[in-house]
Amino acid sequence: MNTFEQLKSRFASGDALIGIIGLGYVGLPLAHTLHAGGFRVLGFDIDPTKIDALAQGKSYLKHLGPEITTELSQSKRFSATTEFSRLGEPDAIIVCVPTPLGRHQEPDMSYVINSSRDIGRALRRGQLVVLESTTYPGTTRDDMLPAMLDARPKGAEPLVCGEDFFVAFSPEREDPGRKSHNTRTTPKLVGGLDAQSTQLAAAMYARGIQHVVPVSSAEVAEAAKILENTFRAINIALVNELKLVLTPMGIDVWEVIEAAATKPFGYMPFYPGPGLGGHCIPIDPFYLTWKAREVGQYTRFIELAGEINTKMPHYVVDRTAAALNDDGKAVKGAKVLVVGLAYKPNVDDVRETPAAEIIDLLEDIGADVSYHDPLVPRFPHMRRHKRDMQSVAITPAALGSFDCVIIVTNHDVVDYRAIATHASLVVDTRNAMRNLNGLGARIVKA
Predict the structure, then answer these.
(1) What is the 3-state composition of the chain as percent helix, strand, coil, each rounded to the nearest 5?
(2) Residue 102 pLDDT greater than 80, yes or no
(3) What pTM was estimated for this model as a whole?
(4) d(CA 30, CA 82)
(5) 8 A C-beta contact, residue 50 and residue 27
(6) Domain end position, chosen among 289, 308, 327
(7) Which of 96, 161, 280, 404 is catalytic?
(8) Domain boundary at 264, 289, 308, which?
(9) 161 given a catalytic annotation
(10) Structural domain total, the chain
């Protein structure tokens, strides 16, 4: 039996050991899903606090609940480590690491490249390597594979991709907080560097995921993920721009969207907001625009969408300044409460959150800013934002002390009626205050 058949048999029987690099928003639910499918799972992460938390069954991702970490910690088929020298043990290695943007909006591939080198140093015959991190087309073949091979120790056994080991791309499709789908029920795209790599990756994922969709290449799978998120970014930019146009006309963009959504075909509602957040939608389109330049193409449509979405925090601050001015108050010295630090409702995920930029912009022009977010009690360390802040409680007295309350993220647990009753001015970026006019606060949409 050749290497391909041996590995395929191990996936089919569930005897394989699956290694997952990165135990965050993507890697941890994937580890749980493949473990539930019968595999042994070995997690890898550079953060020892995550390893300790998993060993104790403690949850560090609130939106997943405690069940996942409790179940994994009590299983003999799961363990986690910071020792990347153990990467030679798994039959399959899945890479779930960040792919952020650099200072100049260029792709930062350092996490992928460093993980690839770690894999290459331990790579052995009979392993499958899958990249899940969102990236531009060509990353798996042109960046990851060479980094793996370049890191091979001198004198190590020569290995041929597609014969001795196998490589594929399968984009993560996590949506933190979503109830309608999870890792197991979301269809899984799989594209290998060759046909055998595709078959092996599909066989592995099929043990834990309901519907696996093979495509013809890693590049197709990479481009599909970029398309999914660029589609959302462009449509969000469209309604954000529509908001800029309709607001001076005295037309409520939210009502317009709901009216258009009554059409049962040819329309899909998207909603405006204070700016894009999360690890995918604000970032992925820029990966595509960067890659497009390699082939002499300029993605003006995508870049325009990015420009519109990027300026939305500035629009929120401008609307806030204008609203305060109407109340006879200056922004400088004004007490402002930002409600919601997470980038989306009902999760504690602050990656690329527009709330952090809005806080920075307000403080830059002299506002005294606090924030309220029951899911994010302390301002976490972020790549571009560092500050010592804690969530403040919402009480009638506290609300009355602020000159303005800005709703950036519409968590379900927030008491909007209390805000409408006790605040003097509310700038609402999420339409959270609909049907609450007339309770005391003046409500301005932004």
Answers:
(1) 40, 15, 45
(2) no
(3) 0.90
(4) 18
(5) no
(6) 308
(7) 280
(8) 308
(9) no
(10) 3
